Amino acid sequence: MVSFLDLNGIQVDLSFEQGTFPIEPMHVLVLAKFQNKWLLTKHPKRGIEFPGGKVEENENLTEAAIRETLEEANVKIINVEWIGEYVVHDEQPFCKAVLIANVEQIYENQTSFETEGAVWLTNEELLNSNNLSFHMKDTGMQAILEKVKKYEGKWND
Spelled out in words, what is the top-level CATH class assigned to the domain 2-149? Predict the structure, then answer.
C-alpha cells in the first residue's frame, strides 16, 4: 500500500490489491492509451486529468467508467480492467477504483458537457505538462503510472 498526503494535505491510501479497504469504490478513474498517447480530459477548473467520476445508482464500476469516459472525452472504451483503488480520507472519505481500458471509438464531432473534451498526450508530454490538475501531480499518480507500465502490451496502439 502507498500512503501519502495529496497536494491539498489530505491523507490518501492507494492499493493494487482488491478488498484492501472497507469502503466500496463509488468513483472511477480511467487510464487508456490510443496510438501511444494517453487519453485525458481538460476540466475547466482543475486542468488536465484522466477521465472519471461517480458511480451512479444501479451501475457497476465498468459501466461507470464507460459512461464517464464518453461524457467527459467523447471516447468509447472497451476491455475495462481493475488495477487498483484508493481511499481519500476527506471529511467524508470515499474510495475510487483505478481502471485501464482500450479505446474503441473516438467521436470527433460530439460536444462534451462535463469537460472541454479529450486531450491526447505522449508519456513525455504527460510527465512535463504544466496544466495538470492537482491530483495528477501527487505521489499516488506516480505509483499508478508506474503500475500501468506492466500493462503496456494491453493498449490497442
Answer: alpha beta
